[in-house]
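Amino Acid Chain and Its Fold in Token Form
===========================================
Structure side: the spatial fold of the chain, written down as a series of whole-number tokens.
Position: the record begins directly beneath this header, with no further notes in between.
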Amino acid sequence: MPKHITNSTKSLVSEALAGLAYLNPKLALTDTTVHLREPNKSNVSLLCGGGAGHEPAHAAFVGDGMLTAAVSGQIFASPNAQQVEEALKKLSFTKGTLIIVKNYTGDVLQFGLAKERWAATHLGEDSVRLLVVGDDVSVPRSQGKLTGRRGLAATTIVYKIAGALAAKGASLDEVEHIAKIVANNAGTFGIGLEHCHVPGTEQSAEDYLKADEIEVGMGIHNEPGIRKVSPIPSTEKIVDELLTAITSTEDEERSFVPFKNDGKDEVILMVNNLGGLPELELAGVVNEAAKWLKRKHINVERAIAGSFMSSLNLPGFSISLVLLPREPVATSATFSSKLTFDKELLIDCFDAPTEAPGWRWSFKGRPEEVKVEEKEKVEKKEESDEGVKGPAPTDPKLFLSALSQALKLIIAAEPEITRYDTLAGDGDAGLTLKSGAEGVEARMASNGVSDKDVVKAMVAIGEVVEKEMGGTSGGLYSIFFSALAKGLLEAAKEKGEEKATAEVWARGLELALNTLYRYTLARPPSRTLIDPLASFILTFQSDPNNFNSAFEAARDAAEATRNIEATAGRAAYVDKKKLEEAEVPDAGAWGVLKALEGIKKVLDEQE
């Protein structure tokens, strides 16, 4: 999406950082460095940074229990060494500083230069260390043998665990050691549905992916992935590819993390939103990842999801795994520690509280498999001739054929109806109607729509649309079909008919419309589905043996919604001028028309 909310692209980063600092009085802003106002002098400081555009990384992870300061460059550009040095000065009175940066050339050079300058002017000290994190598994070893793995979302887990240990008063050696353990056992793999757009830049059509493409191995700086895939695979297939690569022990090019895949591996799972993926879809990724890991007998000790390291507005996600140590990881010979660097320590630090606003809540325990509770099963009695019976169709085969054709036309019209609703509503009408129609088709395929009793048939359809459609349309259609079932029963009794004649249908439809009016204020003309529905029913009621006349009335009413001011429905909230310029019919009205077209087609073939 090449549209942004800014005062100017030059001031965007500094203004965003000022907004972040405003929200948290414990933070201060110096130039483009966000830092704690009063860092604990007895603790090790954690300093990170890099280009902006990866929010909430890096500045939003500054807070007690996590980072002490973060230096930001412009979008996707590293800050310069002088900015980093200024940040080091602010942290110089603490118990040492660990710099943690992602493995990108600019970040490594600028932060590394600042560290070396600091060392040159503070001879005899070893108070500043630098850790470079590379957790990407998408780029093959042979391709990245000089530059190494890119730093991606698992870097934030390094921040969290190292920051928590620092808050406990650990030494610089100890904080650096635990940070290395996490970094050396982390793997991340991501995909994108599209590239992001950098504010202030032009982007041609060639820069975008096709409508049915995704890119596998996306980085966080708009760099291309390792390959494109079309058509877009299911969530299950995408997750399978990513996790297979992360946990592989046989792929010499990508086996970076020392998994053993023997049923005893334990991990921290992170599902990261790269900026523009709906939370609905992200949660679906979490579900698939959980199922995949369970199938592979990889135990998830902790799981977390959300936006941790984005790429501006990129619609995509990454999955990270941190493999937890089975045995304590020994410290180097240069320092001794009373701490035991094992799984329990890492988990304890991961669970430790933090005031960093960018860190998402997570359950402080092992996530459990979701068990969807089933509704109580009620034994259905076989249908018998006893009890209330509705009228039978005059021609059962014709009845089912007409219903089937109506459903087919609704499904086929989904793109058209969706386009109308996108211009004049909320864009969901086509898919909603399609879902309902496909649900009824499935019920028919299992012989769940009676061809012997139109009342039972209408009840079944009402049940399906209530479940499959939802929302306003689902509610209206469910009420209508339920009311039609009752109306047909009453109409048959009134007229003393055992068959659903045209007169019975006409009277039943009239009663159903009257019931529907109790639940909606829409009356024709209102630019809603009521317009063609009411026109059809009232015309058909006046002449039950003339379906074509009633259909023409419905078609005229549906076409007329192009130029009617909306008084009900979602279109009532849309700019009137926009509707006039679009000259599109109401999406709901068009759905009714398509259903009637299907019935008419079958009836015409009978003549």
Summary: DSSP finds 18 helices and 14 strands in the chain. The two ends are 53 Å apart (CA to CA).
